Amino acid sequence: MPRHILIIDDEDDIREVAALTLEATAGWRVSTADSGSAGIAKALSEQPEAILMDVMMPGKDGPTTVREMQDMPDISHIPVLLLTAKVQGVDQRRFANLGVAAVLFKPFNPMTLAAQIAEALHWQTEAAIA
């Protein structure tokens, strides 16, 4: 049974590249959402094994979405990896205090994205082993 990951990002091209990459390089099943609210709804209905979420989104940003999810028993156990272009130390500390599994940086390398996620979550995958 393939891993299932939910990608939450307001940028269509980022969602598309990440989804195609994870499906092609790791064989994972990928769901997508274009906002924090849509992502929460999809996480509740689909129960993915992990969530890759953009930090900067209009309306409800990544950190706000993470905090809301942590208050929901049905999805609070799902590990979240934040995807951000912000690399300053103060931002990294703020993200670390959220209790996320990892912070990955944009632009990401499509060929190593699955391996980065697998490593952060301690998953064994063909992509990570190869």
From TrEMBL:
InterPro entries: Bact_response_regulator (IPR050595), CheY-like_superfamily (IPR011006), Sig_transdc_resp-reg_receiver (IPR001789). It comes from the Bacteria. Transmembrane segments: none annotated. The modification 4-aspartylphosphate is found at residue 54. Keywords: Phosphoprotein. SUPFAM superfamilies: CheY-like. Residues 4-121 form the Response regulatory domain. The keyword Phosphoprotein applies. Gene3D superfamilies: 3.40.50.2300. PANTHER family: CHEY SUBFAMILY, STRESS RESPONSE REGULATOR PROTEIN 1. This is Response regulator. It comes from Terriglobus aquaticus.
